[in-house]
Design a protein that fits this description.
It is built from 3 helices and 4 strands; from the N terminus they run βαααβββ. With about 100 residues, it is α+β, with helices and mostly antiparallel strands. It has a 4-stranded mixed sheet with strand order 1-4-3-2. Strand 3 (about 80-85) and strand 4 (about 90-95) form a beta hairpin.
Length: about 100
């Protein structure tokens, strides 16, 4: 199995998101771009981890089985990146700007 690629690009969710929240900066940024963040959440939920290197993708793919934290990063524009983090216990998923971490 190739662990450097997302396990799924289908519409099927791979894990529980828990409560979905967003930081003020992420909400403001998404709003200013005419986005809601739902498409990014769907990608994250289905194992499309966005713009991660092979090591981070492999870490996420392993986390699907071992229950660790899941992390995605999406480059929206040249200057704007949105991170999505699902906690290890799957209780909450947060959309945020990197500087809000």
């Amino acid at each position: 199995m190739n662990t450097t690629k997302p396990l799924s690009k289908s519409a099927l969710p791979l894990f529980n998101l828990g409560q979905t929240v967003a930081t003020p900066g992420a909400l403001e940024t998404l709003h200013s771009l005419g986005m809601t963040g739902l498409e990014l959440l769907k990608r994250h939920h289905c194992g499309d981890w966005g713009d991660l290197d092979a090591e981070d993708i492999a870490t996420n793919n392993a986390a699907l089985n071992n229950g660790a934290r899941l992390f995605s990063s999406y480059q929206i524009t040249n200057q704007i990146k949105i991170w999505i983090i699902t906690e290890a216990d799957r209780s909450v998923t947060t959309l945020m700007l990197p500087e809000e971490y």
